[in-house]
Amino acid sequence: MNQIASHFRRLGESDPKSDRVPLGQMLLGSGALSVGDLLEGLSLHKQLGVPLGKALLTQGSVLEPALYDHLAMQWEAPRQRDISIIDPDLLESIGLDNCLRHKTFPLNVSNGVVRLAVSQLSDFDNAYADLEDQFGLITPVISSPSEIAAAIQNAFKDQLADRAAHDIPKSESCRGLAEHTQRRSLLGLAMAISLLACAILWPSTVLVILTILAITLSLSSAVLKSLALASHSLPDRDERPEESDLPANPSVSIMVPLHREPKIVKALGADPDN
After folding, report:
1. Which of 157, 143, 138 is nearest to 82 (CA)?
2. pLDDT tens digits for 38-69?
3. Burial per residue of 50-65, b for 16 or more beta-carbon CB atoms within 10 angstroms, e otherwise
4. Triad 178, 183, 188: Cα angle to 5°
């Protein structure tokens, strides 16, 4: 509110009324909006946290020119739909960069005051800060964003075309985006063909692998069986020791009861070969 009032004070005009009629009430009063559409717009306005006018445009309840007709009345600023008539000298002085930066368009100079088309008073505030030293008094004229964009396009079409051809990187240009889309399409086609080939060849590949494993297991079993048969056909080795390997006088230990030890010792000594 302070910004809006400051614009009018710069122009030597009276401050706008602080008790302006709400936008929704103005649209209802003029018949541009129904009660149901207004309620839906208010709900969307609260849910998204956007201005009511933007909410109404989003849901398609009101057309952009009609909305800015009412916004101009609410802001107590002049409204101009047709901005095709321009001042070439003023347009050249302000230039394309200022128009794009501030989303504004210069109309003409009236009584020493530059009339600047804007769709938001915040855009006018930024433009005023940049252009005040050069042009002095500037007043806002309300136009819709589409009307301003169309005016910039028509007035600076040669410069815009030149920038599109030289200043914009290839990756951000239409040609670069088209080539990037084409590369992505080719990559997607290659991936689709690869997936299709895998889907077709996968069963046969699995069958070949299982066949190789079965043959390998059969060969391994046959080899093991052959080795087992060969081990059974070999002659048994004689594990008995040769007589030459026995000692000439072997030592023999005998366990006897103590009370019979004298008799057994006497018997062994009398007949050692028995």
Report:
1. 143
2. 999 999 999 989 889 889 999 898 999 999 99
3. eebbebbbeeebbeee
4. 125
Distance between CA atoms of residues 138 and 58, nearest Å: 31
Calculate Rg over the CA atoms of the chain. 52
Residue 165: the pLDDT is 73
The structure tokens 């009018």 sit at 8
In this prediction, the residues of the chain whose per-residue pLDDT falls under 70 are 1-19, 167-178, 180, 198-199, 201-203, 206, 228, 231-259, 268-274
pLDDT recorded at residue 181: 75
DSSP, residue by residue, 148-163: HHHHHHHHTHHHHHHH
Q: By the 8 A CB rule, do 72 and 19 touch?
A: no
Helix H or strand E encompassing 274: none
Q: Identify whether the C-beta of residue 67 lies closer than 8 Å to the C-beta of residue 53.
A: yes
